Amino acid sequence: MRNYDNEVMSIKVEARSRFFYLDLKKSQNGYFIKISEKSSIGRSTIMFDIEDLPKIIDALNKIKEKCNNSLT
Length: 72
Description:
Layout: E1 6-15, E2 18-27, E3 30-39, E4 42-49, H1 53-71
Antiparallel strand pairs: 1-2, 2-3, 3-4
């Protein structure tokens, strides 16, 4: 049996009535991130290659900045 992904690190975030699981995994093709949301209505998951992490962090920071600006 081949091992397609190994968990390197996992973080659980509780937010209101939902849980988010952020997992760093490694496959034979390299590292990737898996983000799963578990709520009372179900579970959803997205995955992306580690090379795309800076773009995603940049986008989240822009959203955070927009939210901070609209609160002031």
